[in-house]
Design goal:
The chain has about 750 residues and is of the alpha+beta class. The chain is built from 22 helices and 31 strands.
Length: about 750
């Protein structure tokens, strides 16, 4: 039997650091009596062991079956090496052996075992920063690889004797849990309020719960930045918070005490429940069933719900009378979430009743991630805490490529071998603070992931700050058309490398002809694309101003359909618009002054929303389409007729909507008929594209596919018609996913020798 024992080297790549992987391997080896060693490197986990072939097969099988919940194995390889005899199984010190990198774990919600420890372990009673190898902060505290304590923001906290014993005990759940700490040796909270500075968790909890229960607002330092909290059922508190944030319309996220509380206020499917309770703990957009304070969702029929993910959240809900608190990003307007303690006190102290801080640095800021479910599947809308920096595996070597991303809801992307590493949500690149966050994050990702880019790929639009950053970088550059990048993003997520039918519906993207695109049907692969057809061009009077004043876009369609007679139709949406403003728009359209044309789906939805008097002026990005979707009456099957020529003409739709309004048809029915029209158009064009090309795979991407009615029904209809439909689930279909598409296109073109 001893003659059959060989020495093997096993290499495991994927998300295997910071998730309890080495202790898991140790315990597995002990169970099977295998001797050898395990080590972390910046490339992954390596294992050397003595075993026969049968024992090796069982060992490898159990690694895949029983790996820690937050781990994600991409590959396991084993090879025979020179024979070496091991006397025991040991855990070796981490190694930094090359410029290749292993994955960094996202931040993980506190686990049930730690919550129990918070109530039973003497040195961790009510300790709000407890964690183990199965939970706690990761990405937000890491400064470099390998993932060891001295390379995190926990480096200044020296472990006490008890924590050190746990950290060194391979059989303990906290073995090599880098943020391990307790009441004696770890970070601590401090509350700054009108009463001065308060320390001690019991006093802090009493004070904060009292403030929130009485309609106050507290700024709370979370895992990836500061958040603002108040009672989500308190009208005055929510209104005050909205005023403080200069956030007039955008819905607030709400943290509920538990799943039962969520189910009282929202419709929750079994899939929704799994997502809410997953270790990632995202915000999940749910259909409302009971109203919170009116200004939480501001008239939309949805609630952005999440469950506690930090120990402090659980401690706070034990004290609160309310089952739900607004927990919104701690920033002002469109600036990044605040992570600096002094800045937070300066900014938030005047408008809040208290600021809760702690003495551990947040190194990488992250907002909460946002998801929705469509047809029983999770769809990421904003990818940040809990998801970043998990990479996407692609089919090409993307080493040395930096994708700059888009202008709105920006994420950038780095190529490392066959991995695409997307950044956390950066935001809209339209102010100094967000752009500075963008630049800082690129530099940090480059260092942590050991990337010295040779190429930078960017959007075709010359005015995007991401484009300007790329062009000023000194790297070899490649410009990529916006909607081609959308389709490529969907292809990359699903590992497609072939020609597909691509439907890209969104708000804004510069086309090859110099016009603004956004309602596009493309025949595309990862190298190139051809525009099959598109929504017909319409003027945007005032250019980008139409996104803030959708009534302008409605008037543009009406003027083209009816001429100046549209001003005499007594349409309610125009009643509050100054006569001079309406006439100015008509003159601009008539003389083609500052009225660039667009094929944008977003602008079409804007126009219909304004025409129905649902949203004539938008207080936040995509408000008009969101409210139009929210208005849909369920069960309506009717639709409108369009004209399919060289482009898709929607003017007949506007004439029909005017007829419906004259007959007092409700906006909810009209909204449903309009959405059904878009579905019919997409079905008809896809059929034409299949007849023309023989293609049967359809990729849907673009921000308009965040519309659940549109995405859900189109996915179903096309699938029932026999098409293979690919929609984005792990990566946002909005511009937050653009960088992945840019990277995939550049990597493919480089593989083909075209760049």
């Amino acid at each position: 039997m001893a003659d059959k024992i060989q020495t093997y080297l096993i290499e495991i790549k994927g998300l295997v650091q910071g998730v309890g992987f080495r202790p898991f391997i140790y315990r597995l080896a002990k169970r099977y009596g295998i001797k050898g060693w395990v080590s972390n490197t910046n490339e992954g986990v390596k294992i050397g062991l003595n075993a026969d072939k049968d024992a090796l097969a069982r060992f490898l099988e159990n690694i895949e079956k029983g790996s820690p919940p937050a781990s994600d194995i991409y590959s396991i390889s084993s090879q025979l090496v020179a024979k070496e005899k091991y006397d025991d199984f040991t855990i070796r010190k981490s190694e930094d052996i090359s410029d290749r990198i292993t994955q960094i774990s996202p931040d993980i919600a506190v686990c049930k075992d730690c919550l129990e420890d918070m109530r039973s372990q003497p040195h961790r009673i009510k300790y709000p920063f407890l964690n183990c190898t199965n939970c706690g902060p990761r990405f937000t505290i890491i400064q470099d690889l390998p993932y060891d304590r001295e390379k995190t923001t926990m480096s200044s906290f020296e472990m006490c004797k008890d924590c050190r014993a746990e950290y060194d005990n391979v059989l303990d759940r906290r073995f090599h849990a880098q943020p391990v700490a307790c009441n004696r040796c770890g970070p601590s909270y401090q509350l700054i309020s009108g009463d001065g500075k308060i320390s001690g968790i019991d006093k802090i909890l009493d004070r904060i719960s009292g403030i929130i229960d009485h309609g106050g607002i507290v700024a709370i330092k979370g895992m990836g930045g500061y958040f603002l909290a108040c009672d989500a059922t308190h009208e005055t508190a929510v209104s005050r918070l909205r005023s403080m944030k200069h956030r007039e319309g955008k819905p607030f996220a709400v943290m509920f005490s538990d799943l039962k509380a969520v189910m009282e206020y929202a419709e929750v499917s079994s899939v929704d429940g799994e997502i809410l309770q997953s270790w990632r703990r995202p915000v999940l957009i749910l259909k409302a069933r009971k109203e919170l304070a009116r200004e939480v969702s501001n008239g939309l029929n949805t609630i952005g719900a999440m469950l506690p993910y930090m120990p402090f959240h659980y401690l706070l809900f034990e004290k609160l009378n309310t089952p739900a608190i607004v927990l919104t990003s701690g920033n002002i307007s469109d600036e990044p979430i605040i992570i600096d303690d002094e800045v937070a006190i300066e900014i938030f102290r005047p408008g809040t009743d208290a600021v809760l801080s702690y003495n551990r640095e947040i190194y990488n800021r992250t907002d909460d991630s946002v998801l929705m479910t469509v047809n029983g599947s999770a769809r990421v809308i904003r990818r940040s805490r809990g998801y970043v920096p998990n990479p996407v595996q692609i089919k090409f070597n993307a080493e040395g490529i930096l994708a700059a991303g888009a202008e709105l809801v920006n994420c950038f992307c780095l190529g490392k071998a066959d991995s695409a590493i997307l950044s956390q949500h950066i935001g809209d690149l339209k102010n100094y603070e967000t752009y500075a966050f963008y630049e800082e994050s690129i530099q940090r990702f480059r260092r942590i992931f050991r990337l010295d880019p040779e190429w930078v790929v960017y959007d075709l639009h010359p005015d995007y700050l991401s484009t300007q950053y790329a062009r000023q970088s000194g790297l070899k550059g490649l410009a990529v058309q916006h909607h081609h990048a959308h389709i490529a993003s969907g292809m990359a997520e699903h590992g497609l490398d072939e020609q597909v039918i691509g439907i890209s519906f969104d708000g804004t993207g510069l086309g090859d002809d110099g016009n603004i695109w956004g309602g596009e049907f493309l025949v595309a692969d990862l190298n190139q694309y051809k525009r099959f057809t598109h929504f017909d061009y319409m003027p945007m009077p005032g250019g980008d101003l139409v996104t803030e004043e959708p009534w302008r876009m409605a008037l543009s369609y009406l003027y083209k359909a009816f001429g100046e007679d549209c001003l005499d139709m007594n349409l309610p949406f125009l009643e509050n618009i100054e006569e001079s403003s309406k006439k100015t728009i008509i003159q601009m359209l008539d003389k083609n002054i500052n009225s660039p044309v667009t094929s944008s789906a977003g602008r079409l939805f804007d126009a219909v929303s304004a025409l129905l008097n649902i949203c004539t002026s938008a207080k936040f990005h995509a408000e008009a389409p969101m409210r139009l979707e929210s208005a849909i009456f369920e069960g309506v099957t009717d639709s409108y007729e369009v004209v399919l020529n060289d482009a898709i003409d929607f003017l007949p739709v506007f004439r029909s909507i005017i007829d419906d309004l004259d007959q007092n048809i409700s906006p909810g029915v009209i909204s449903a008929k309009f959405h059904n029209t878009i579905l019919n158009v997409a079905e008809k064009v896809v059929a034409d594209m299949k007849d023309s090309t023989g293609l049967n795979k359809v990729v849907l991407s673009g921000g308009t596919f965040q519309n659940r009615y549109l995405l859900g029904n189109l996915e179903k209809k096309l699938s029932l018609s026999g098409y293979q439909v690919y929609t984005q689930k792990k990566i946002p279909s909005n511009d937050g996913g653009i960088a992945l598409g840019q990277l995939a296109i550049a990597a493919k073109r480089r593989t083909l020798g075209l760049i």
